Amino acid sequence: MPKQVDHRERRESIARALWRVVGQRGVMHLTVREVAREAGFSHGHVQHYFASREEMLSFAMDFASEQTAQRVGRGLEELGEHPHPRDVLRLMLIEMLPLYADARATSRMSAAYVLEALHDKKIHARARDSLAQGRSLVEQLVRQAIEDGYIGPDRDPVTETNLLLALTGFTTFLELDVIEPREVLAAVDQYLDRLFTGDGDGGA
Amino acid sequence: MPKQVDHRERRESIARALWRVVGQRGVMHLTVREVAREAGFSHGHVQHYFASREEMLSFAMDFASEQTAQRVGRGLEELGEHPHPRDVLRLMLIEMLPLYADARATSRMSAAYVLEALHDKKIHARARDSLAQGRSLVEQLVRQAIEDGYIGPDRDPVTETNLLLALTGFTTFLELDVIEPREVLAAVDQYLDRLFTGDGDGGA
Questions:
Q1: Of A17, A74, A187, B18, most Cβ neighbours within 10 A?
Q2: Please, what sign has the CA dihedral across residues A172, A173, A177, A178?
Q3: Where does A53-195 sit in CATH, by number?
């Protein structure tokens, strides 16, 4: 195996161990030492791959975002060549929610990262950039859908983007078993049905 | 000061110190020792008030919920005797979001508690009960608003309740400065305008 790939794979397996620590043992245990134990490596071995706890956390977060993007990418492939913008947005929203194991792991990592951001300026800046980038992507889709006549021309793209993203608020209700997955899906679909009232005739 | 009041006040001041630790130093520091330091008490003194870290955390969370309920209660008083259900729901939503210092402290405490719930069954059960109770209250308001003709009779109360609560998803976007407070308020108002389309004529 080429050395570079091995390095990357090692970092990814440490990142996955970090996600497990977040979900199974708690943010209290997010130290290099505890993550090393979970990954089955020595403390020094993990330090070889990450110079600091912050670097390890940031990598684990970036890796979570990448994994989420990959899941969305696979879902997009299944939607075919000219997917309906409603289906694209639905896919993105669903993959951000803790509805199944993979999405749960990345969602929990995000929640932990946001809490770290509250008291760490570097992490805050990084988390902000990443979330703002995701928000831009959604706004672009919303603007295009308005232009193409899928969403009514009276809708404000900024407000609609923000309301769509706020639906990630289901996360807490899912994690605490207060709203069931099928109810969340029903609510998301109801919401999208009300937003996508046009037939995509180019808004002519 | 009567002893009981003093006991309660002491516990509240420790809870506030715990909130500060969450916001300013991070969940990693949520130990009895660190909270005692932040509160300016000895470790033993805090142990006198809380038998365990879990008890301290749960009290700090209950206190956060109480404080939020009190803020909502004060807001309700300002709304007068027969408030419009739209205003009541708006008030409840706004107070759950980290839009100003007090609400930020309780919101951060909630976020930390949810992460603790992931790996602690007792905390999970407690957090679930509290959130489910809040959800019931909102559902009751929504059902009444449908019955009174403020919300269209075609709306499903369960789905509408869930969608309203999902708006707490703005929390992350506010904490990371990705969506500005005025944009959040605009989106919430837009959302409520679309929900409250009736004039409260009793649905007749």
A1: B18
A2: positive
A3: 1.10.357.10
